[in-house]
Amino acid sequence: MACNTSGCISRCCFSHGKFQEKLVIKLNDSLIQEELPEKNLNENKTYKSVFRVTKFIELNKNADLVGTADGFVYSFLYDDLMTRPKKIVSHFGIIKSLEKSPFSQDVYLTTGCDCNINIWVSDIFLEPVITLSVGKQIEKAVWSRTCSTIIASIIDNCIQIWDFSVTKYEPIFIQKMPNPDQKCTGLEFTEDGKHLCVSDISGKVVVYVLSNISSHDKDDEQYNLVYAIAKIIYGTKYFPSVLIKERKEFAEVFIKLDYEKYGREYS
């Protein structure tokens, strides 16, 4: 799949010795009416280009997601392109990160030009279930490939490691780049999850060894992800009731949390 700045999402395939590109969907400009009482209706109406695509992921069998330069994420059905894309309010400024969790087809993260890493469950909510607030603009965020609750992010010339199963209020580890002028441009976990590769504007790549971060098999990590999210939002008014109805794996975890609340063992 490929996206471009004119709002086009295309699917590319290799057939008969050459690549063929097929347009999947083109997001059109929309009419935005600003509520300005001091102006008349004609002056209030302005056209705003909200569909400059910056990121794209195939989330699951039900939805693909598109991030735009205006801080929105749009969800659309690949098998039903006549349906209007669903707009999810996401960030201020350009969508810089749009990444699906390696352990779930429904959980993904986003970053923009604000100070938040937002974690979402599918497209059933118009707001994130978890927000990691860092106080400074985030350049990029990525999931660990082996530990479902760990996220790495770039802020200025610092690398931050988050584990929201421990806390959502602050990173568990912060590493400044050796050179204050060494601006980071990208980061990625290795396949084994034991190292983090960080690139900078000079073309150098620094590899950090991650110690004291344990991982389990895939099934355990899938459960750990669901449990960590459920524990954070447990007791809120809206999220649990919807997830209990829409997602079986969350329903089971919320039952367990009910038992734990009253000191009872769930089996």
From TrEMBL:
Cite the SUPFAM superfamilies for this sequence: WD40 repeat-like
Look up the domain of life of the source: Eukaryota
| Entry's localization field | Cytoplasm, Cytoskeleton, Flagellum axoneme; Dynein axonemal particle
Which GO biological process entries does UniProt record here?
A: cilium movement
Q: What is its main location?
A: cytoplasm
GO CC annotation, single: axonemal dynein complex
Q: Which Gene Ontology molecular function entries are recorded, alphabetically?
A: dynein heavy chain binding; dynein light chain binding
Keyword Repeat: yes or no?
yes
The record, for InterPro entries, names: Dynein_IC, WD40/YVTN_repeat-like_dom_sf, WD40_repeat_dom_sf, WD40_rpt
Q: Which UniProt keywords apply?
A: Cell projection, Cilium, Cytoplasm, Cytoskeleton, Flagellum, Repeat, WD repeat
Matches recorded under PANTHER family: DYNEIN AXONEMAL INTERMEDIATE CHAIN 4, DYNEIN INTERMEDIATE CHAIN
Q: What is this protein called?
A: Dynein axonemal intermediate chain 4
Source organism (scientific name)? Macrosiphum euphorbiae
Q: What is the lineage of its organism?
A: Eukaryota, Metazoa, Ecdysozoa, Arthropoda, Hexapoda
